[in-house]
Target: Glycerol-3-phosphate dehydrogenase [NAD(P)+]
Amino acid sequence: MKEKSIAVIGAGKWGLSLHFALSQRQKCLITSRTKRDIKNFVDLQTALDCDYLVIAIPAQEIRSWLKENFVFKGQKILVASKGIEASSGQFLNEIYADFVPDENIGFISGPSFAAEVIKGLPCALVINSISKKLYVEFEVCFPDFIKTYYSSDVIGAEVAGAYKNVLAIASGICEGLNLGKNAQASLIARGLVEMQRFGKHFGADESSFLGLSGAGDLFLTASSTMSRNFRVGLGLANDKNLDEILKELGEVAEGVKTSIAIKELSKKHNIYTPIANEVYHIINGKNPKDSLRDLLKN
Ligand SMILES: NC(=O)C1=CN([C@@H]2O[C@H](COP(=O)(O)OP(=O)(O)OC[C@H]3O[C@@H](n4cnc5c(N)ncnc54)[C@H](OP(=O)(O)O)[C@@H]3O)[C@@H](O)[C@H]2O)C=CC1
Ligand SMILES: O=C(CO)COP(=O)(O)O
Model:
């Protein structure tokens, strides 16, 4: 029987880490926009010909990348990005739906800093797909140090993964303003309720927010300087300009653009999202101190 072929698309922090992980059990190819001198780096076409693809490019780039590059030939796909498209307010599964049948696609969620995965440190991830068969096929590709779970709650995973990035910015601001651990824990706990409310509106299973995809990833990201989004918050609290912060970061911080998407969606659907709204306002120039005071006052 022909050995199944697998490739990672996007050699940023997360793509490289997933490539490392997936190379433990089988040969795994990798490609990216910029050529890299790394083992098993191939051109895009060779990667697209693989049976299994793991796509790790920023959420805001996905639509144009798919339009320009992707032809569906029956590939099974795992989406590793976490964000909501700001220009349309569409979730990633809605964007992919124009290119890939739902039963051929899954979404990775859960607490997983790339920097730890690439060291082979243990973590647990959820593969979210309407197809359990797709989960089973990908599960065997992951190494022992990554425990995988199955969930059919695609929208719950998507909302949780995207929303926690915005909340991590808020938490970084709280830390940068030295408001204390009480305030930070309150913000994170209220953030969890907020993203659950937002997700429920779009059909998510509320319990997803209490597991790895929700609380797991939120607690990780909103409490560590390893998070790029958290560091954006720290920078904003220290009166740094957003462009300067993002330039220094040199990597994607999805929460910035996702806060725009959430602000628009919550307005359109009349959902109460106070923390995400304040992050949006801070990104658009509101003083972080005023914002946090507005959020935490009686
Ligand atoms: N880092 C982490 O710990 C985790 C990240 N994620 C998510 O994974 C996604 C990617 O994050 P990460 O890898 O860390 O980000 P990085 O900023 O490290 O890398 C993003 C990569 O995407 C590629 N890229 C950017 N724009 C385009 C485009 N228009 N077309 C094709 N490729 C493009 C770039 O490739 P090139 O350099 O070749 O130009 C770049 O290396 C994000 O949604 C993030 O939230 C999820 C879990 C963990
Ligand atoms: O999603 C992540 C960990 O699960 C990474 O978060 P940052 O993008 O904020 O670094």
